[in-house]
Design brief:
By secondary structure, the protein is mainly alpha-helical. It has 3 domains: about 45 residues, no CATH class; about 240 residues, Fic-like fold (Orthogonal Bundle), CATH 1.10.3290; about 60 residues, Arc Repressor Mutant, subunit A, CATH 1.10.10. Helices cover about 65% and strands about 5% of the residues. The chain is built from 15 helices and 5 strands. The strands form 2 sheets. Strands 3-5-4 form a 3-stranded antiparallel beta sheet, with helices on both faces. A two-stranded antiparallel ribbon has the order 1-2.
Length: about 375
């Protein structure tokens, strides 16, 4: 081999350079992201096209830091997260080409399913349960091969419970061979996550999602679960303190669809833009909840301790939209009683009707 060619081969190969190949090297080699070894000589640097997404990354970091600071110091954090779960799941379903209105998702969550619920409603209910489960468990319990495979099983179980008939739709027991293959791919992806530890969190999460979509660790629901895992990785790497990045909502707002056909530089930029847009929306949502609560507090100060209005106020803070049927069920009121409370809130400009329908009306806080 000519000296020049030999030198190029040595620089292109971690093994030839005396560096042990790692999971990230294996997954990203075809993207030509590997540069020469760092001065320590222990690993190769990740050669992302930094300049192509630097501005989008900077804006995403700024807005995300502002959102985290706001939520960490706020006593409305719980209400914000409750509402964010609904909005993110509605966006997840929309990205898959289906549609579930947030007010309908609230009904689904309250077990107020119609006699013949649509597949989209059932799927939304399953994803809502899954996002809440991830939020409760956190990164340590979720980011294991068993934990990730459990997400797929959980989603399948809920979908089967909502399916009509005796035959399971998606949730058949996994064969041993299929389970082993999935576990191998999941461990492979987790190795990549480990190798991304030294990369800044937002670009690292973008790359982890790209690798997830390419190797497809799960046989079912991989796209939806992957979009839930990217915010979890930001939590895992200390960028956030919970599931506070609504990535699907950001992608939906920016009209982006990350897939394997997206060039790497565009992928990184669009991911950062989605994070920025989601964080901006999160800040606006917090301000909206705070304004609504201020109106509610002022109104409640004029009511006695026996009023049901404080309970209704709590529901409006924690849910993005409420139907009259939901209110009657949760507060155990008559139709007349719930309507009386709603009319008082409407008269004080605290809530408003958002559907314009004569029946099955839905209400939300005035922002």
């Amino acid at each position: 081999m000519p000296p020049l060619a030999k030198d190029q081969a040595m620089r292109a190969s971690p093994q030839a350079a005396g560096v042990k190949a790692n999971a990230l090297t294996h997954e990203l080699q075809h993207e030509r992201l590997l540069r020469g070894p760092e001065r320590s000589g222990k690993r190769y640097a990740l050669g992302l096209p930094w300049e192509s997404f630097a501005r989008a990354w900077s804006l995403a970091e700024d807005r995300l830091a502002r959102l985290e600071q706001q939520l960490l110091s706020s006593d409305l954090r719980h209400s914000w997260i409750c509402r964010a779960d609904f909005k993110e799941v509605s966006a997840l379903v929309a990205l898959e080409g289906e549609s579930v209105a947030i007010e309908d998702l609230v009904l689904v969550d309250a077990q107020s399913l119609p006699s013949r619920p649509t597949p989209a409603w059932i799927k939304a209910k399953a994803l809502l349960s899954l996002r809440r489960q991830i939020g409760r468990a956190g990164p340590a319990k979720t980011l294991t091969a068993e934990g990730l495979l459990g997400l797929e099983h959980r989603l399948a179980e809920i979908l089967d419970e909502g399916a009509e008939g005796d035959e399971p739709v998606e949730g058949e027991l996994m064969e041993d061979g299929r389970r082993t293959a999935s576990m191998d791919r999941l461990r492979r992806w987790l190795d990549v996550v480990g190798e991304l530890e030294s990369t800044p969190a937002v670009p690292a999460a973008a790359m982890a999602l790209r690798v997830w979509q390419r190797i497809k660790p799960l046989d079912r629901y991989g796209a939806e679960i992957g979009l839930l895992l990217a915010p979890l990785l930001l939590w895992h790497w200390g960028k956030t303190k919970g599931m506070t990045v609504c990535l699907a909502a950001g992608l939906l707002e920016t009209r982006r669809q990350l897939d394997n056909a997206t060039p790497l530089d565009a992928w990184m930029r669009q991911f950062c833009e989605a994070v920025q847009v989601a964080a901006n929306a999160g800040l606006d949502e917090h301000h909206s909840i705070a304004r609504g609560r201020a109106r509610l507090v002022e109104l409640l100060s004029r009511h006695g301790a026996g009023s049901r209005l404080p309970h209704l106020a709590w529901l409006f803070l924690n849910y993005p939209a409420l139907s009259t049927r939901f209110i009657k069920r949760r507060l155990e009121l008559t139709a007349q009683g719930s309507n009386w409370l709603l009319q008082e809130l409407i008269a004080e400009d605290v809530v408003r009707e958002i559907t314009g329908r004569p029946k099955n009306r839905v209400y939300s806080l005035v922002s």
